[in-house]
């Protein structure tokens, strides 16, 4: 299967500050690829360079076999984009919007087909100002599919949606995979990335700090298990960090009674923890041990970068 | 092309769904039209002499407020950012937006024209030329609207910038206040505003010579429009995050401003600051020379000459005939000598009230306010020796004296109410009552005869009316008002 998107050594600066510093990744055809990162990490800039909203300073961008920097208009014929917040004119209806945007492309999907596919038939002739947040986001998705795109880019599509709308959107993205679309989406909801993406790239401070299938990334964390605990009295962070196998120890509240850490040997670490609590005469109120998630991987990768930067 | 047509169609459809846009785009110009109709209700052909101003206001509102408001609000909402993700080029979306705005202002103009025709205005003299001139005006102001859209970061900024351009254009740019009523410095300033050329171009096509008489105005509008469109295209912003202050390429504003300056300097160089000839020409000369009798409001109609009459902006010295060396036959009786009482009675005495804004006439017991006392007294002292009112035959002198009342009224000076009283009292002191009645009746019957004096600055009243037709109309109304007093129809 050939790569639909290739990004090589992408660089972009704003007023002398490098927002993207040599980002590289590729997306295979039919793949759902997630670009994850904290706010300001450079993921939106990366996507905006890819869709032609920004001119990169350096790097190569290839979309559907086309050089996106040399042929931006041709590339736009093949991609569909749903931005984080797509707003249209108050008085426009979904049917009119789909017809209008359809007229911008060589190939177009009939408005009725998209309305049905994104469950907007009942609201086809309702004005945009009367649509709910979920309906607006579904319309934004429908607009992304108006040209039968080979690549769909979704920029934080679920941000600000209620749980029901989020669930509907997850179903829509899952259907895209089923229909064979190639999808690149950015999010900071790691659970949905873990659930929906074939592969993810974690970007931090303008660099890719981790890349691969969610399971692989989790496996790369060497079987670390995540431990959270709550105590009756504050404990010194240094004493917890000294536990055998404990890593990335952090207090999760200001009182110094809630902690999070990872360990490669849960049995040894927990035995030592119990001894420590007994000696310190501190009562254990809550203890949870679970397998590491993508969120743990994300936190580990981005926090290490922070430490290194510090 | 398909994208352009679809976007144009949708833009128009959305415009007609927006109540506020309809209010500003259509109702606002119509309110202006009704206001002008009421203000100038005594003109024989309603609104004909004001279509330049009215249509310009319609285009100004649509192009300098409507267009940038739409562009900026859509940019703020992210609609343009979404358009940018499609393969359609910038020029296609901007072109369709501009075309949609042209259609909107054109329909607003047609609506104004239709209403004006419905309330009695005659058809414009050159309809095709009018359309061409209107299109140039639209082009100029749409270019200006594009510049405003690039400058304004949000909709309130559009309103502020629009007002900065709209109000000066209305007040000293010759759009709402006639240039002739403005002091000379304002007329110089107006030469730098496209509003002046918009009014002139349209008005010339409504009741003047058509496009041949509007060449300079069309050139000025074309230049301003081209520069505006160029700057608007070069500074075009897709994204609300692109703040104007942080943008590069601001120098593209220079051509837009330079066009205004260049047009103004060109007008100065070519001596086009005074009111243009076309504007001074009266409307279509199709009216009878004498007002027809009957209940129709003839008495309040503006007189119209059968043929263009010479216009003087300063009183011309009356040539003194050389002394006769041989016996000459007795001079023929003056034309007014044949006027009878029946002629006077046939006049329709329906005139605007003395306390109104047209031909006001202060009662004898109303002294002028302190700040204008000197001015009124100055006229009272100079009137007896004022050459146009004292040299020549009775008809010429009395007609010229009427202009002392008419000019301040046409300019709407504060002293306008008191000048008729000064003139009337001077006439009573100078001429027998019967002679006055006959001469004034003759003037009413022949309102277009003789020359017009529209500048009485040598009497201490500064400002020129600039519009001879208007001055004749007011002189005609005062002639009737004087007759009403002389014949006892009005008691004082």
Which key features would you list for this structure?
heterodimer; A: 310 residues; alpha/beta; Rossmann fold; Alpha-Beta Plaits; 2 domains; 11 helices; 14 strands; 35% helix; B: mainly alpha; two-stranded parallel ribbon; 2 strands; 58% helix; 1% strand
Count of DSSP H/I helices of chain A: 11
Q: State the secondary-structure class of chain B.
A: mainly alpha
Distance between the termini of chain B: 74 Å
Low-pLDDT runs of chain B: 276-327
The CATH C-level class name of the largest domain in chain A: Alpha Beta
H and E order of chain B: HHHHHHHHHHHHEHHHHHHEH
- Overall 3D shape of chain B: elongated
Q: CATH homologous superfamily name of the largest domain in chain A?
A: P-loop containing nucleotide triphosphate hydrolases
Strand ordering within the main sheet of chain A: 6-7-8-3-9-10
SSE string of chain A, helices as H and strands as E: EEEHEEHEHHHEHEHEEHEHEEHEH
Compute the CA-based radius of gyration of chain A. Answer: 23 Å
- Between the first and last Cα atoms of chain A, what is the distance in angstroms? 41 Å
Low-pLDDT regions of chain A: none
Q: Got a strand count of chain A?
A: 14
Structure commentary:
The complex is a heterodimer of chains A (about 300) and B (about 500). With about 300 residues, chain A is of the alpha/beta class. Chain A has two domains: about 5-220, P-loop containing nucleotide triphosphate hydrolases (Rossmann fold); about 220-290, Alpha-Beta Plaits. Chain A is built from eleven helices and 14 strands. Chain A has helices at about 45-50, 70-80, 95-100, 110-115, 135-145, 165-180, 190-195, 215-220, 235-240, 265-280, 295-310; strands at about 5-15, 15-30, 30-35, 60-65, 65, 80, 150-155, 180-185, 200-205, 205-210, 225-230, 245-250, 260-265, 285-290. In chain A, the strands form three sheets. Chain A has a six-stranded mixed β-sheet, with helices on both faces. In chain A, a hairpin with a 6-residue loop joins β12 (about 245-250) and β13 (about 260-265). In chain A, α3 packs across α4 (about 110-115). The radius of gyration of chain A is 23 Å and the shape is elongated. Chain B is mostly helical and about 500 residues long. Chain B folds into two domains: about 1-280, no CATH class; about 300-485, no CATH class. In chain B, strands 1-2 form a two-stranded parallel ribbon. The longest helix of chain B has 29 residues, at about 90-120. Chain B starts with a helix and ends in a 6-residue tail after the last helix. Residues about 275-325 of chain B have low confidence and may be disordered. The interface of A and B includes residues 51, 88, 103, 104 and 143 of A.
